[in-house]
Fold these 2 entries.
Entry 1:
Amino acid sequence: MSAGASSTSTANVGVLFKAHGLPYSTSMESTDPLKAWFSATNNLIQPVVEGQRVDSGNRVQLENLVDLAWISGVQVAITDTKAQTESKKVAEFCDVKKLASLAQIIQKNQTVFGLALTGDSGRHISECGKHDIISATKILQFFSLAAQELLIEKDAWHPVGSVDIAVPQNSPLAALLDRLCPAIITGNCVRLVSPVQTARSVTILMDCLAQAGIKNVDFLVVQTLADWKGSGDVLDLSLLHLREVSSLSFPGYKHIIYPGYGRSAAIVADTADVSSAANSIVNAVLFHNGQSKSCPSKIVVQESIYEKFVDAVRARAQQIRFGSPLDKSADWSWRTDTSNAKKLNDHVKQAQSEGAEIVFLGQMPALDKTTDKFVSFPAVIVSNVGTTSVFLTDQYRGPAAVLLPFRTLKEAVSLTNNGPFGHSISIWAENITGAMELAKAVRAATVWINGCHVYDVSVGQGGSGASGWGVRGREALYEFLSWRTKSDANVPVAEQDKEAAMTLRKYGKFYYGNGLKSADSGSMQTISFPRSQLGKFEAPIGSSKDIKSAIEIAVAGAVPLGKTTGVSRGQLLITLAEGMVARANDFLTLLRALSPDGDDAQREFDATVERLKILGNECARGGGYCMQLNETISVTYLLDPCGVIGVALPEKHPLISLTTVIGTAVANGNCVVAVPALRSSAIALEFCQVLSSAGVPAGAINIVTGNQSELMESFKIYPDVSTVWLFEEVSSQNNRDAWADEKGKRIWRPVGIFDSGNEWSGFHGNLFRNYAVKNKRIWINSLQSFVN
């Protein structure tokens, strides 16, 4: 297909309209409402700190995207370094009525918002003015209800403190509110870190927040994110593209939520409605100008209908009218950033040189003579490419997709899962049984059956693997909350130890695979109990080779364990509880040696046994549920096991922490490789004796003792360990930043959960379960076959 295909189709449509005496021309959206808005602020955008507008004097001109020079003279004040690093006080839990009020204010100003969003993102006015506003309203309404539920349990949680959210250029309203709402309703102080390009939309949002009475949100502007020097508790980068932040460092934060990368896919089986699938998939490729992770870039089609589907895609693409983002008569506008525009142009040339067929390619843009860069790129759909094509291996953003044929459904799953990404997948098949089988087999957090880009905030969304583990919806609340604990720093230590001193305890082996194993090096270390009067113990010192062996066995056992029934896993946990009761005297003696208060030992042991029984009984209930959104759409919510979880256990309260982690992981079908803190590893080694006689499935539970920091480093090089739990007592070199470049790993750093025994009776299993499962949402769009 020639490069001018879309222009030709537009001309044909114009001829058709004129032949019937109908007008056919552009219809540009008026920009007067936005001009009036900025005229009221003297065409100046200023940062907002604690409800007051501030101006450092460092101003830059707000640049308009090409062909959007409809507003000029607007300046943006850049936030200075001092304002970036100033600390803030923790806010209160947000009044739920304010979120409902904000929804009404945004609806009232939807025309201004639509124009601002179009100017900032380059997306079409109809998409910004309708889709984003409707989504934003639904998000606010949902979180106003979620906030009421949260207030009931607020005594069990507290805010993480300060949260800085980086504003994305492609969706500076709906996606931003999806992260802003859970942050503010949980009582955090939030700063919106906006690059100059999105300052237009965010300053309007700040005015709406002020009208709604929401005061714990600040608005700071930087030239680019590389200029940000802030510090605080949490930096949320999840709305950005990994390429934008992979080379940046933010040492001032305790925790950073990093974005994923990669694209989505679509599978078209031979039973699909070809016309409906082609129309929806082409629209999905163009959605958000192709710059969303949910836009399909890989479309695999069954061989028997491949040619028919290619023709349908070509026909649909040629019907689309591209134009200015402000042209109401256009269907779509194409827009991508300059670096991606050049990258896509190079990819097209390389694919053509390798024999690829261009199914559709819009008119190529000219170079911007002032910058010598491409400023936009049209939609491109390519077929007849190899699996090593740059379109499949490289990372880019823009409206581009590749068509690939497959013969069997197993081959379709292999092609779809080829790569580390797993954001969302669209499956087209009228055979629902086969479609559900595909949905369970593909690696993705969101699966649509006979549909694309269907979202509801009550269902949420997220990623899998290298596409990012960040979640939206109700699960996002956990990212901005901490466990409310009481400090046990003032617990009095007995003046004299009444317990008799223990003899030297020798633990020659730890446990992995399905039995006790000696350390590969044969090394042992003698460790004194914190209450040294009660003796010492000898522990085996594992090495990276021991960790490697444990991980390999765990990986091999993950699939069989995940397929077992909840009843069998529950029986295993109850067996472990009974085994601990049989060795109660040994555990209590060790706990008294490790605890500053002898009475605390009995409480910890009793809570541990009770927790294992609770987790065991919960296994029989199963997981997941089904939601019906309307009469045609239902969502099946699956809780898939993560696979292999690596855990660095805390030193405090070693028994309750060990069994909670192991119990939660196994209850949800995961294998676990745990590395206890060496000073309190006697508890874990004693627990290994229980494991050796409990009939544990091979690889399900693995415990390796040794230098915790060194052993945890070994987890980084194994991609099969998809989830890592790091407790706060772990050495600082294992902080979240040190794991930032580990592609596809889901890192959880629990804060303060096991600091005190005061909260043992209030175990929040949902918090642990949230990080022990992969949420998969399967959207089923019921075809209306009986409509007359």
Note: The two ends are 38 Å apart (CA to CA).
Entry 2:
Amino acid sequence: MPASAPPRRPRPPPPSLSLLLVLLGLGGRRLRAEPGDGAQTWARFSRPPAPEAAGLFQGTFPDGFLWAVGSAAYQTEGGWQQHGKGASIWDTFTHHPLAPPGDSRNASLPLGAPSPLQPATGDVASDSYNNVFRDTEALRELGVTHYRFSISWARVLPNGSAGVPNREGLRYYRRLLERLRELGVQPVVTLYHWDLPQRLQDAYGGWANRALADHFRDYAELCFRHFGGQVKYWITIDNPYVVAWHGYATGRLAPGIRGSPRLGYLVAHNLLLAHAKVWHLYNTSFRPTQGGQVSIALSSHWINPRRMTDHSIKECQKSLDFVLGWFAKPVFIDGDYPESMKNNLSSILPDFTESEKKFIKGTADFFALCFGPTLSFQLLDPHMKFRQLESPNLRQLLSWIDLEFNHPQIFIVENGWFVSGTTKRDDAKYMYYLKKFIMETLKAIKLDGVDVIGYTAWSLMDGFEWHRGYSIRRGLFYVDFLSQDKMLLPKSSALFYQKLIEKNGFPPLPENQPLEGTFPCDFAWGVVDNYIQVSQLTKPISSLTKPYHYISDFQCLRHAFHLNNLKNNILRSTQPDFRLIHMDCHFTWTHFLG
């Protein structure tokens, strides 16, 4: 039985009194935002936050909020030659003996990862192709409402072109969708998550050829016909910035073409046209009967000005234009690139015809946002920062999108962080960022009036992490890559996410509520006087000259020695000189880092 599309929720009421009065005067409608309005974001957040916005924020998400988790075919499926699957560009790229510049797929491989004697690949990965029940049981444990996964183009069409599809490939995705239906979990399906069939790369030069858009349309039509009755959220292409720039300009990712900026911009141009073709196909031929929604997953970073000057803020705006606006402005605003790109890249940025602008404009039913280490601090081109400072601030990015693209409904379709590949189930760092990002999302909804309809933690399980191979982990569930059965074991973050979904956010707890009362009459009130002074050493202390963690007696500084057995003991060479801490209190020993 086809799943019904969840109704669109009304926008959350804006919190500020002034904005509320404006809304009442406009009959409840928000003021229209225009490209460039996002620049207000930096000035707004440069002011000290209101007490309710600082630190821990308590509250729950709107009713009907979409709680999801995600994965991608090449990262988790494995089965790279099983049952007639064709080769993809990532199969070729990872099997190739020469690694691209900056590649670290074999760096710091953890216990349980494939042998460092061979290049890291997704040949087996998490073996999801042979473990549908295992994966869906993990979804049941989490209690998510939605599961985002991608279809391997080469698994259903081994040659990439329309023709006789691979029955076993279609059967695998039908089994997965049927199991999701049994669990009451809605699928969010990505058509293209970076794994182009190798045959199309060989025959056409991949996305550098405009003809590929027609093949992508044919592949999408096959998926809509076979799976569309059970899918209400479709993603055409994941992270076109990375596909275009690092696939065809820098060569850091598959297909590994070390071209030029001109080629990267051409590929992005073709990706936008291909996306628009698929949206129009669905809108005309499938939406009337299937009732789903289609978007394109756009990744972004966040950037802060070095100084709160007009020039620095303009450079920050330009940075977001060159990464997110590159694709979002054509789709959500007017079918054309940001003015800052056209002004700075006039000789290498392709032009859209007027008919193409009309064709691309409005080809997304919601704003699908990816935010996290796939791009931030990893694959963002340094030149596109324009000498400003990257920051992992999701709330400010959501506010910028809300203003820059006229208050769209935003579905966060990828978010999270990573831990070392040696980390097993105690992933405190990942859990910290997960809580931080979800709380920032809640603040954006409750305090800023941003219409966020869903959140996707990335990812369901550990897998192959692209250019990082198996040197990092991003899953809520731990996978021992050397084991035969590849069991999924919940990490601390999985238990946290499950509880958070169950409570629909961070509901106020009784022990954290304001309390009024008086202390007993004989209660003793006092004060203590102490201080800590941190100063630059004019001369290094002989015992503090090595870059280690130290423990020292500050009353006399006669004893200062490094701790040999402390994990991650060596300090980075970029850390500042050692500081001397003077303490006028009763501590005899203290720990400090150089």
Note: The chain is about 35% helix and 15% strand.
